[in-house]
Write a sequence for this structure.
């Protein structure tokens, strides 16, 4: 069984990924209570490298936020972002005019395509006690034929995401098919939209002192299992500690023995695109020349400009979960 393990890698910041995925990061921040502007009190920001605060201090980070944690407006081109918020909330705003507040199990799927700006801020809505944020952000590549597809904004509300409750495990199916349970449709021009590509994103939770069987894939795909919380696990005779990723042979069914704490995994799987990748910050193309053109176009057009009053735009504290689409459609939860 341990022959199913191709490699074991430490989980850094961000996590190492395999084609067709470009990037995966896990944010777990135990924020303090919020102030009137939905950020931490100013005195708590002293000693932080504001605008570039990725150091875990007092259990949380500000990232690129100056007063509210998060990522003020920035551009993307040539790929998709998939943001899974298990705890806390994310406020989205973009250059298409789309906006939303999502969290507590929701997922946002955004196709950057030919180019979009967006901001992702983490408002501290609770003023009485702490605000915990737990999220994954995943970058899924687009093939050359779809690099310039129209940008697309989609919400997968947690009420609609399939969650499979087995005897000793719970599997949340963000993308793909788990034992016949099909995820919601992804963005229309996504690599995941073609089921032949077997793209799967599963958040798996398995009880302590139990076994979990990961089914084999139907085709030749890359599969990475990220073990981000728990005690040790065993795959055959190989022991794996938490905060390690496991590159697996997806053609094999794999039995995982769980240690004395509940184990939490994220699985990313998909058929590789097998095209050249050129990356520079928020742009992902096939050649360096295309990257240079993307930078020049962004400087010229700002990918449509920024229609919001602030770079770190957040929505009213009283707003619940909602999505406003570029065509003006408003969905409130």
């Amino acid at each position: 069984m341990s022959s199913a393990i191709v490699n074991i890698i430490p989980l850094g910041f961000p996590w190492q990924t395999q084609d067709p995925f470009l990037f995966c990061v896990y944010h777990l921040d135990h924020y303090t209570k919020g102030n009137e502007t939905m950020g931490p009190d100013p005195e708590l920001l002293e000693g932080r490298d504001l605008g570039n605060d990725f150091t875990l201090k007092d259990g949380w980070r500000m990232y690129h936020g100056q007063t509210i944690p998060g990522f003020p407006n920035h551009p993307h081109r040539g790929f998709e972002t998939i943001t899974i918020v298990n705890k806390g909330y994310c406020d989205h705003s973009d250059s298409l005019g789309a906006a939303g507040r999502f969290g507590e199990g929701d997922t946002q799927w955004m196709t950057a395509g030919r180019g979009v700006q967006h901001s992702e801020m983490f408002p501290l809505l609770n003023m009485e006690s702490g605000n915990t944020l737990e999220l994954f952000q995943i970058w899924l590549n687009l093939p050359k034929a779809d690099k310039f597809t129209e940008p697309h904004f989609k919400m997968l509300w947690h009420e609609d995401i399939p969650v499979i409750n087995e005897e000793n495990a719970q599997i949340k199916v963000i993308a793909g098919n788990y034992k016949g349970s099909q995820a919601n449709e992804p963005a229309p021009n996504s690599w995941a939209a073609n089921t032949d590509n077997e793209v799967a994103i599963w958040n798996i939770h398995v009880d302590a002192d139990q076994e979990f069987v990961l089914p084999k894939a139907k085709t030749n795909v890359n599969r990475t299992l990220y073990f981000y919380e728990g005690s040790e696990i065993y795959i055959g005779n190989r022991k794996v500690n938490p905060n390690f990723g496991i590159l697996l042979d997806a053609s094999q069914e794999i039995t995982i023995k769980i240690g004395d704490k509940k184990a939490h995994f994220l699985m990313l799987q998909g058929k590789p695109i097998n095209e050249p990748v050129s990356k520079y910050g928020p742009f992902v193309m096939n050649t360096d020349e295309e990257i240079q053109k993307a930078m020049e176009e962004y400087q010229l057009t700002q990918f449509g400009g920024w229609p919001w009053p602030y770079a770190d735009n957040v929505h009213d504290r009283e707003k619940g979960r909602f999505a406003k689409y570029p065509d003006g459609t408003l969905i409130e939860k």
